[in-house]
Design a protein that fits this description.
373 residues, mainly beta, Outer membrane phospholipase (ompla), Chain C, 2 domains, 12-stranded antiparallel β-barrel, two-stranded antiparallel sheet, 9% helix
């Protein structure tokens, strides 16, 4: 249920209570009956918690690939994702939080492998065959909005399809136990414009400031096993080619995040178990790929799930009362210039000029099941 509808319902109940109280008082004037006080709205108008398992057959991780016996380059990594998602609506806005545990197959190996099945030997300069387990990643995302209609106690920011305008803030954090050992931290801040769609749907558009202020990269650390110590020139010296601690810091940039949802209410009543949703995020160039070290510039990143088709299995089996308690879904995911790395220019994405290792663009159909509790 949307915030607007919930507030309207609450207001209607309050009005009914006031009206009933007023009528009772008028009828019982001789005994001066006292009207019951109107209950305050609860702090949280809606709380929604869900668990999801999903299977992604063709995920990627930039720079991670293997060469097959026939010479073909395999830059895809099958991944299993276990996710917890929380969403709530309170009197002044919304909160969204999700955290995922992501397990990769052997093509994205855990440390000490530096690539699929290879441990780099700094003494010989060649790789030693190995059978490292698939990497494990933990990634969390938080977004919070503060509605202008609610803050200023007005309806000024509701007109036509525009439902509300809000302040939005949030952050991302993640880490992975492969050789790169990333440890991403970023913050976002800006506005969100919420629009209504037919069939109880919505689309939210958020222009934001995005700042990835910290992200580790073991390959950039001075004295790393793959790097000859004599060649190390620590930042900020002239000609620097390594970071003392391997911790990169990128420049603030722009971002636009969009998400939408809509029931397929135009279907016949006996088929109204389906909905569509999706999201897209564009993130501007943020400096060099190993910022503040010089090198290849980052590119505009597009991280998207243009469409997800959801079947409301619990509604189909047990009726409307159990709507969206169990959802089964299939989606398409497209992620270009993953993590801002330029898929056409970076050595991370190409084994030779013009020869891609297919690891910096993710294009996959994947599926999952979501349970509400």
């Amino acid at each position: 249920m949307s915030l607007r509808k919930m507030l309207i319902a609450a207001a209607a109940m309050s009005f009914a209570a006031l009206a009933a109280g007023g009528l009772a008082k008028a009828a019982d004037l001789p005994v001066k009956a006292k009207a019951k006080p109107v209950a305050d709205l609860p702090f949280f108008l809606l709380i929604d918690d869900r668990l999801t398992y999903s299977w992604m057959p063709k995920g990627t991780d930039p720079g991670v690939f293997s060469i097959k016996p026939g010479g073909a380059i395999d830059g895809t990594t099958a991944k299993q994702l276990y996710s917890f998602t929380h969403f709530d609506i309170w009197q002044y806005g919304t909160n969204f939080f999700t955290i995922s545990y992501i397990k990769s197959d052997h093509n994205d190996p855990t440390n000490p492998c530096t690539n699929a099945g290879v441990i780099f030997d700094p003494n010989t300069g060649i790789g030693t065959p190995a059978n490292c387990a698939g990497a494990t990643e933990v990634y969390g995302l938080f977004r919070s909005t503060f509605g202008w209609n609610e803050i200023f106690n007005t309806k000024t920011f509701t007109m036509g399809p525009l439902h509300n305008v809000s302040f939005e803030v949030g952050m991302d954090a993640g880490t992975e136990n492969n050789y790169l050992a990333p440890a991403k931290r970023d913050v976002v801040a800006g506005l969100q414009f919420a629009f209504d769609l037919p069939y109880k749907g919505y689309i939210n558009v958020a222009p934001l400031m995005y700042w990835e202020f910290y992200n580790q990269n073991a390959f950039t650390q001075c004295g790393a096993g793959w790097q000859l110590p004599a060649a190390a020139v620590p930042y900020p010296a002239a000609g620097a080619n390594c970071l003392i601690d391997g911790n990169r810091s990128f420049n603030p940039t722009w971002a636009v995040e969009i998400n939408y949802y809509m029931d397929l209410g135009f279907l016949p009543e006996n088929l109204q178990f389906f909905s569509i949703s999706g999201r897209a995020g564009w993130y501007g160039p943020k400096g060099y790929e190993n910022n503040p070290l010089p090198g290849v510039k980052t590119a505009v990143e597009l991280n998207s799930e243009p469409i997800r088709l959801t079947f409301d299995a619990s509604k189909a089996l047990w009726g409307t009362k159990y709507s969206h308690f169990v959802d089964v879904w299939v989606a398409y995911r497209y992620w270009q210039n993953k993590f801002g790395i330029d898929h056409s220019a970076s050595a991370v994405c190409n084994i030779a000029p013009g020869i891609s290792n297919n690891s910096c663009t993710e294009s996959t159909v994947y599926t999952g099941v979501t349970v509400k509790f």
